[in-house]
Amino acid sequence: MIRSLCLLLLALLALQAHAGSLTASVDRARLSEGETLELTLVSDDVTVFGRPDLKALDPLFEVLDTRQVNHLTTLDGAAHASTQWRITLRPKQTGFVVIPPLRLGDAESQPLTVRVTPADAGSDERQLAPVFIDASLDQETTYVQAQVVLTLRIYHSVSLYDDSSLTALQMPDARVEQLGEPRTYEKDINGVRHGVIELRYAIFPQRSGELSIPAQTFSATLVERNTRNPYQPFGARPGKLTRVKSPDIPLTVKPKPADYPADAPWLPARALTLNESWNPEPGALKAGDSLTRSLLVKVDGLAGAQLPPLPATEIPGLRRYPDQPQLTSQVSERGVTGSREERIALVPTQAGDVAVPAVDLVWWNTVEDRLEHARLPGRSLSVAGNPSLEPEAPLAPAPLAEAAPARPLWPWQLATLLLALTTLLGFGLWWHARRQPAIPPSVQNGPSPRTLLDDLRRACQANDPQATRQALDAWARQQPETLAAMAARFAPLSESLDGLNGALYSEAGQHWQGEALFKAIRALPPAETEGDGTPDAGPLPPLYPR
């Protein structure tokens, strides 16, 4: 009984939480007096019936149309149903107008704010035409390579067939990018309702001087009412073909300012931010550890492809392995926002304090018309020693015991003694060999050098940095000298080892090619030995030689 009551209580709580989901959104947050906007209400609660209560809109808006759309989607076998109400509104006043919360059952939407600007006083002749086009720039003067937003609006007071077309905007001295898809809404002009097709373009001039935004031509067929042939109900509806052109718009493009640093890349933007992050956070570091530093620059008014590489300097005590930069661009009605993210794997090579220098990015603020700096402060990394990477000190040879003074011997005594010992030793070995059975040859334990070299070759051909490092360590253990000594006397091997280490400690490991490393191993010249001495066996080299 208690279990049933608990389940019922949980179900009621879930229904109550689900009942509160009613979200509101608008297709535009800024419009002119007489224009319309579309308010969308979305509910995921399929247990609620009816329509939202729109009475709260009456004091501030005129409700022109309401449509209900039902959606049913299936994801991973689970069905998800939602209901949308699309409401066409015309504000009754100018300024900042608040769309109040609307109720549907127990659910309530959030309030929204839109800005309504006073209507512009246009030409009466143009407004009387059934179709006309208007074009405007957000600024009349800009800098070279800076963004200018062109807004193109096509007004029509009559219905149009779906064969309308607009010429492409092309400028030989500028780069043009369309900002999203065309938007449609309505606007009341002198008491006449007009449909509006709005398009926006981002224009980036590539030279300074006087430019002209060329005219755009809009072609469409007007629907004529009450002209359908009653005897051909399925025939083509007659109409009138019309063409309208937008005005040419002059644009003044200024060159790069004289006080802008000559050695800095030109960055004109409305806003710029520079941030960094570390993974993991630099705390207790040891030599040979790897950490990733991410630098993200976000620019309002430039595309991601226009952003230059961030300043990079070699840092003593750190090895850098940069990844490919990530470039993105986002479009909105205000223009293009680009970002560039650079990630660098850093590996400390020695103990001590490592100073990471500050990052300073110069850019030009086109809103304030002044030079600005985006700066990341420098920081210090404390790196502790790593005993596993320290080369082992060779053992000191044991001191020879002090020889006792030798007593002089006569030559004939030495010769007699040597002859007797040699005779006895030879006879003893002969007698021992006759009494012992033949000893089979011993079998070598462990892989042969040839097998280890074959393992290394296969790992290099597979371009697998992890397997190559393991095979390389196994092969180096059977060599007369250390891997560090071989790399020190043979430059191709040293360069190949740097490439292998970079692949192991950066995200570019999948692009590593092992052919050069195996060629360097095969071309390694033999070590030069002095006299008859054998080289001392040393430890394997650290992953990052200092």
TrEMBL record:
Pfam families xref list: BatD, DUF7939
InterPro entries (UniProt xref): BatD, DUF7939
Keywords: Membrane, Signal, Transmembrane, Transmembrane helix
Protein origin, superkingdom: Bacteria
Segments passing through the bilayer: 409-431
Region (Disordered): 229-256, 313-338, 526-546
Protein name: Protein BatD
Organism of this sequence: Pseudomonas mangiferae
